[in-house]
């Protein structure tokens, strides 16, 4: 049987959690126990079993002399796979069987940091409880925020996550780390005219809502009250293109003008009064 076919059969048996077939293949072809199984998977049998949370196969593969810390072509150890996927039973099993928690993935994070990055609180709590010194390897929360922003992970409130973790607070007593807080409502929202035309076209096709920004964020020449298309869009949507305090300002300006006119009229009347008074005295 060719090497590729053997590895494909081994991969298929692991995906089915078929421990009998896995044992038979490894006993016959022990040289494949630490090899990447397929081009797509690029993971070792133990790494894939840990990824899937298959404790039975992990135990079997260690009995068959799999290297517990071998990372394979992707440089991610079985313990890291289990931690990333939230497979806490497998994480505990591998740690108790001597898995090295100090190894780093290609992004230079150890298993604790990876559990933090992936938002796996219970696993991170287990690791710092089981191996207290590993908590010293945690970096400032901004490090993980910046990494996630670049790599588009799911949202995690890393500041609160790490604060609660270092206090060893049980997950059941923690706040929600995974819901992104809603931005504060805009005070004077207007449609953003800087929207690229490609995004505008796809949004219109999908009947999406236009991007909104604070009026003050736009330069004066892009604010709707100063653009013909801005005014048209506002009127079509039944909105005023002017700032929310526009009419208040108008009223204030009119009041100032009225007061100035009143003072002017008073001066004119006084002059006429003084003139008539002088005439009478003569």
From TrEMBL:
Highest taxon of source: Eukaryota
Q: Which UniProt keywords apply?
A: ANK repeat, Repeat
> Where are the annotated ANK repeats, by residue?
74-106
Repeat: is it a keyword of this entry?
Answer: yes
What name has this protein been given in UniProt?
Ankyrin repeat-containing domain
Q: Which organism encodes this protein?
A: Pseudocohnilembus persalinus
State the organism's lineage: Eukaryota, Sar, Alveolata, Ciliophora, Intramacronucleata
